[in-house]
């Protein structure tokens, strides 16, 4: 059975992390980048998580997981080293149709966290369906080399151009044509080579040319 790939909007969503170790800290940091309301349940925290709690970046309940922790929760990650706790978290979430990921325990997950190449608004996600996190990491490292930081700036630039086109081009047919032609193979290669200004010039040319043709 295939997995359905999606990107979730977690802004202001309550997300629960059960566990306070290094793995939990990595999961919390990823959720924080998405603007989630993060709740951590654990009797102990890493120094990093403790700092986040003291700064008000996460909510921490010192103690062990309880079913009540799931109230109004959108997504759960269980990252403890106690199988009994992880199994309980997974079972409670699945009964309530809550998204849950138990670290390193694919059968008890209804979603998997992919290995991700972060280029600001551009994200490349790799998943092996829980079969091999090591393979996903190796592919991610390869993609990080292939898609360097230039793609972050260029993708943000395309976003600003897209907004301008939507605001300034009233005709839907012309607007669709401009957006379709913003990037071609040559432009893509220029970005890979780090030639951002040349790539941007090609985008600007498309906008100007297509408008002149209307």
TrEMBL record:
GO biological process, any: siroheme biosynthetic process
Enzyme superclass (EC): oxidoreductase
GO MF annotation: an example: ferrochelatase activity
Oxidoreductase in keyword set: yes
Top-level taxon in the UniProt lineage: Bacteria
InterPro entries xref list: Met8-like (IPR028161), NAD(P)-bd_dom_sf (IPR036291), SirC_C (IPR042518), Sirohaem_synthase_central (IPR028281), Sirohaem_synthase_N (IPR006367)
Catalysed reaction, written as an equation: precorrin-2 + NAD(+) = sirohydrochlorin + NADH + 2 H(+)
EC number(s) given by UniProt: 1.3.1.76
Pathway in which this enzyme or protein is active: Porphyrin-containing compound metabolism; siroheme biosynthesis; sirohydrochlorin from precorrin-2: step 1/1
Protein name (database record): precorrin-2 dehydrogenase
Species in which this protein is naturally found: Sporotomaculum syntrophicum
Taxonomic path: Bacteria, Bacillati, Bacillota, Clostridia, Eubacteriales
Gene field: cysG
